Amino acid sequence: MQMKLYNRNANALLIDRVWMDEGKAFKVNIDGEPKLSQISDLQLDGGDSMYVFVRVYIDPTDVNNPVLVTDNLHFHTSNGATQTVHLEAYGQDVERIGKPGCKRTNKLFGMTFTADKPYLIFDTLDIQGTTTMKAGAKIYMHQGACIIAHGKVESQGTAENHVVLCGDRLDRLFEHVPYRFASGGWDGLYIADATQDMPRLPLPRTYTFSYTDILSGNVGLMCVSDRTNTTLSTLTMNGCRIHNHTAYGLYLYHVNAVVTNTEISNCALYCVYSEGGKHDFIHSTVASYFGYTNIRIQSTAKEATSAVYIDNLSKKQPETVVSFYNSIITGYLANQLVVATPIDRYYPGTFLGNYLKTDSLLFEHAADNVYWHASDTAEVFVNDFYKYKEYVYYDFHLDTISPAIGIGQEVSSIKALPGFDELPIETDYDGIDRLNERPDAGCYQHLP
Question: So what's the pLDDT on residue 10?
Fold first, then answer.
């Protein structure tokens, strides 16, 4: 961390001694001098300032809970005054996989991530078997690190204890901007569903994600299969958040998917890319506001792409049938939904009870949607613009006068659709009941 010493007086100030009580956990560098014992007669001119850089070193303790370390940093001036800065930091043991600066592929047969300690991953994890992420698991990924899963995947987060995958930079990019707000901190989570992989595992495979946050990488979740004419594997997501990626949020290729109560937001390319398979999105929010701020914190600019892209053009792949029910698709560009299909009116997907920022859909199964108009003045979300000076980050809960309030189809009517009877949509992402005849669109139900 860093701080500044200020001399708010007109005259110069002479610092003749700097010391710490313990001097074990914290290392301090003042004006380029790393040894406090060498600092004497350090002059700070009137109205001037100088940086103080502080690092903390916490020895592994082999305990699961965070460890608190404290110290006091004292400054004594030539006029006899002493000022003290209290230093306090938490540290925790982690399960390390790989080493910094040593990029390699670690091949594992099965992997279980628990909540006992956080994980710090430096390399590529190639998991040839079942990947399990227990509730509360925290997985910190170093720059360039990724996970490639070839078998069954179970992420078992709960509403109280999410599974979290994010970058390992916990410090700040700028004074007001944490590194977690910058995308590209790690590579991504990939599911490679190839027919030659793991022949002993049953096909099709299942990939289940509950209350899982995938944050600030290059790719959120990419699920890809090479199968074109066999029964496809199935991805199920509920209560998840895929946010802030330099490329794709959720990339689906030759796989079936059911996504409920999930936010997919702020990606430089498509938040959702669908090609090949049956993909159903129910009570989900897709919001494309990547880089929509007045500070440059991203390593790349937002591409002129829609939030959702559906490719149903190829004759050599499974038919792409993507449906949205009681959901939101929007962003700051003009058109946020592209469906590439030979003839619009014959597209088999359903769009029902949604708020959509796109031209009116001419599909046979598109009904009872609310469309954005350029003249609209009501805000959809609490905050779709990052105000860094005010410490106000994006918030895709619904604004009090959001046009997405009360436009959805009744939950019972959605669950009555074929295959939807077990959907967990009676409550929203936050656990709020959807009891109205016309619930709100998206993954967040608005509280009056």
Answer: 84
